[in-house]
């Protein structure tokens, strides 16, 4: 029997970067083995009739493989924005990317209204250096219109030999005309964890959750604790801003780093017996030092799992703006020689039993980041609730996302500097340190 092999906890992306996680289950556990109703078979016969008519009568001889791929992808993308078909090459590319190294431009992307939307450029990559911004719409690639391409087709076109250039035609909100931005491809090596000492505070930025994230976090904490004497270390800032997600198991491991006990996250599928609960093991790697987590409108999925777990357990204060609101989990299901499908199979819930789907994580302390004048009206993140066909929230209330701008210069970073002031006692807020009882899961 074919097996499910990977769980995804990615953000609003399926493109230049994707990631897979862990877990196996029989397809029958999600109802695949259930017999189809007679009406379903009649509809399948309709598909066969249309396919044969195209083969026989289309003005030119069609590519039958492309026809079938388009039909399968259309079926999946009609479900929600995060389900899709991957042909064998795309599936192979995805498997390479999960290792944290791949060739390309270095942007997280999704499809919106038929064009490619940039979720975020990855730090220190060709796209970031060329000036690509979160929220940019890529409407053409080397002069070829994106409209009509699938997301996978657009991503494949953006990949290519190292040092080869590609010209992106970009529509940016607030700009009077489209922009032509040439980017030179390079090998993209994802360093998912970066850290530095801010005098008496340890700053750790997690850009996405790859196979190396937990190890990178562990090494960062050890280095900070070695460089800053224990009696002088005020605490840690974990920066999850513009982190679109990644591996579910890595999000769990990162959360566990700061927790001594309790549930981290649960995933609940279509059937009751599919519920999975993941709990922390004994031991807080930081010894209980104060923690502030930074989030914004580009923090999605796996990032929201971490923020939600630490917030619900009162282990960290969440500071910044509302997160993206992607509360669903995708499973990669291989199809033998025919590639794989990425299928949304579950929602995830924070330890208090809350689904953040189409709502996001509300920060304990809201700090909005001002945009420079030249970017006002050009940078916008609308959140999961704005994506066509998104899964609706379970209680019927939905929230829009928030801004995703992070200043390149730390001195202009209002969210970071507020966190530093709180940890050093230069500012006070009732939400820091966090107080109250840990919510009981339901």
UniProtKB/TrEMBL annotation:
One of its GO terms (cellular component) is outer membrane-bounded periplasmic space. Residues 91-159 form the PDZ domain. The keyword Hydrolase applies. Coiled coil: none annotated. Keywords: Hydrolase, Protease, Serine protease. InterPro entries: ClpP/crotonase-like_dom_sf, CtpA/B_N, PDZ, PDZ_sf, Peptidase_S41A, Tail-specific_protease. Its EC number is 3.4.21.102. It comes from the Bacteria. Residues 379-413 are annotated as: Disordered. One of its GO terms (molecular function) is serine-type endopeptidase activity. SMART domains: PDZ (SM00228), TSPc (SM00245). One of its GO terms (biological process) is signal transduction. Belongs to the peptidase S41A family. NCBIfam families: prc. PANTHER family: CARBOXY-TERMINAL PROCESSING PROTEASE CTPA (PTHR32060:SF30), TAIL-SPECIFIC PROTEASE (PTHR32060). This is Carboxy-terminal processing protease CtpB.
